Amino acid sequence: xxxxxxxxxxxxxxxxxxxxxxxxHKRLIEADVILYDALMxxxxxxxxxxxxxxxxxxxxYNDWQNQEERQNSIYSLFLHWAGQNKKVVRLKTGDSMIFGxxxxxxxxxxxxxLNYEVIPGxxxxxxxxxxxxxxxxxxxxxxxxxxxAGHRENGKFTDLELITNVLKTGSPVVIYMGLNKxxxxxxxxxRAGIENTIPIQVLSKxxxxxxxxxxxxxxxxxxxxxxxxxxxxxxxxxxxxxxxI
Amino acid sequence: xxxxxxxxxxxxxxxxxxxxxxxxHKRLIEADVILYDALMxxxxxxxxxxxxxxxxxxxxYNDWQNQEERQNSIYSLFLHWAGQNKKVVRLKTGDSMIFGxxxxxxxxxxxxxLNYEVIPGxxxxxxxxxxxxxxxxxxxxxxxxxxxAGHRENGKFTDLELITNVLKTGSPVVIYMGLNKxxxxxxxxxRAGIENTIPIQVLSKxxxxxxxxxxxxxxxxxxxxxxxxxxxxxxxxxxxxxxxI
Lengths: 245, 245
Description:
- 2 copies of one chain form a homodimer.
- By secondary structure, chain A is α/β, with parallel strands linked by helices.
- Chain A folds into 2 domains: about 5-120, Tetrapyrrole methylase, N-terminal domain (Cobalt-precorrin-4 Transmethylase, domain 1), CATH 3.40.1010.10; about 125-240, Tetrapyrrole methylase, C-terminal domain (Methyltransferase, Cobalt-precorrin-4 Transmethylase, Domain 2).
- The first copy, chain A, is built from 7 helices and 12 strands.
- In chain A, a hairpin with a 2-residue loop joins strand 7 and strand 8 (about 155).
- Chain A is elongated and about 60 Å long.
- Strand 6 (about 145-150) of chain A pairs antiparallel with strand 6 (about 145-150) of chain B, so a sheet runs across the interface.
């Protein structure tokens, strides 16, 4: 393996090229190969050199390929392009270490003695807070925030009691990839004793030209979803104080 | 008030100028006035024009000035420089909406019809995860992360039961501004039933040239602090899986 290759595992932030870090921007401009998985508008990819190879390696909704196969094909590409001494950017939405599966790819690079680096990015939960002016913490109001993937197991939300307890302190919960769970989540929280008036922010396609913010409440979700069709990806922020300034 | 002023409330990220966003970098280069509060190495401030006015408006350890007075003096500066049609960058470490008091300053700008914008940044908890290769979430291991200010009230940590319950699921807790509370926090968690072997990462001055990462455990904190003196600011990450890859 030549030593001039570099695999940059890059958190791209929410999608706006202006919200890339300076370092990520440099790597994208210089990249020979870009492996990307989220459909984050095309603008970030347009920063690449005309001759750069751009490969989509992400999931296609309801596709047949299992996660392990997909991940292995990414690793094959790492090895292939590293062997060609190329500069590879592995581009991930947000930050790769929170709901981004960066850890597995770092481990692969380490185990295979690839020359790699990890560049942090602005995760969607943080970005949406600034872009829509919804404070996650505020002096005298709350001193924590929970980021959660909203997973279900055996039909039930994991950590529901914990999420409920965070909300009861007045602190917010930020749910990633939560749009298709919103209705069930609101019902479950209501049954668990969260008041129907507690605000919910649904923040769709943040930082992109067609971003849109919606506001509803625990009790209002059913009606909200009848009248609106927020697009994915959406970040959902629930909490007593999560109102736009 | 002229319309050519702009107040940019900028999350600067952890300190490395390369981890500024492209947008924050642009604003810093063009700024007439920079109001900064964290001593984040000088490198970010060096990006400014030579003639830019740089004013430290932050807290000095144990200083006499109360928070309200300090905040009011920042607002006076907003009004003063906006009145002079200047480009003002209000620079905050990390992101202004999480443990950053951005909300209050946004509210002031709104109420006073100032022309402002909010630019998100990489919060220290996220940055430290990538920089030290400590995954915050990982498939099959955990699906949430709690960010907490580690506040105390009447001598007791707020939300201690909740923090304990998050740790018991195997998910991590990220404590901001936690260095001087580390010893008490570890004891309190141990009393609450968290195993002494659970790892703790102490990540000091992240992304700066003298950054340093330390590893200890719930049971090892007392000895660790006898042998090491991590510098502030430090981020503390506690959790079953928070080991460096």
